[in-house]
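Suppose you are handed only these lines of text.
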Amino acid sequence: RTVYVNGEYLPEHEAKVSIFDRAFLMADGVYEVTSVLDGKLIDFAGHAARLERSLKELDMRAPCDTDTLLEVHRELVRLNGIEEGLVYLQVTRGAPGDRDFVFPDPETTEPTLVLFTQNKPGLADSPAAKTGMRIISIEDQRWGRRDIKTVQLLYPSMGKMMAKKAGADDAWMVEDGFVTEGTSNNAYIVKGNKIITRALSNDILHGITRAAVLRFAREAQMEVEERNFSIEEAQAADEAFVTSASAFVMPVVEIDGVAVGAGTPGHRAVRLREIYLDESR
Ligand code: PDD
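From them, the structure of the protein bound to N-(5'-phosphopyridoxyl)-D-alanine can be written out as follows.
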């Protein structure tokens, strides 16, 4: 696989980053994951805009302009022959010569830019979309700025392991009695014709897929209600699903051992997945 590091396209085993890189020592980095279908990037502009916002919120310098980022995405997709898969991008505050809690001077420390692709044939036609996911609930123990897409993914990773140990597929995180989001996706329930999902705030990531799916839902005459919901309300809902750049729209069929609706993917979730895959290609 060919990867990209700070201006260079390299075989992955030749790509190197300093041990003093702030992302390695302090999780001082942000990232984006953009999906690829039919060799084309899905919603690149949305991901680029969110990256810009993440960088700004952390007072971090952009490594280059958006056009250059788009070119690197396209070149990696081409070089690696990706038809279906993902492009991962990470920007860090760079590698000053030593470990220090104080941010390095942006004049002298260049940000680190890394991109690589993940080949995922069959991503759009995923069998999981037909069976649906089983979810457990866990306490949300992340920091308070989940709107910034940082590489601090230890707790979401632990959450995924808790789910696996419990024989489930993923976890929804709960704070003050309400679902925030999934370990790596936004969470939704459906009641009648209404799609219910938590409103945007610093408590959740502002999903690029979320924005598109809510728009498609409204266009398909579904109602959208942006508000908090609890695990109990989700268990009693007609349907549930999650969205993300890698999962698109993925039905949820069970929450903490309780079947949601008929315990099979709900028809609105299935419809929204179809619309999303059709419209965003
Ligand atoms: N995760 N919420 C969290 C906590 C996420 O990590 C993600 C994405 C989302 C969905 O955002 P989007 O629709 O923009 O992908 C919501 C990516 C896919 C990941 O970490 O791999």
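What can we learn from it? The domain at 128-280 is CATH 3.20.10.10 (D-amino Acid Aminotransferase; Chain A, domain 2). Residues 33, 181, 184-186, 205, 207-210, 243-246 surround N-(5'-phosphopyridoxyl)-D-alanine (CB under 6 Å).
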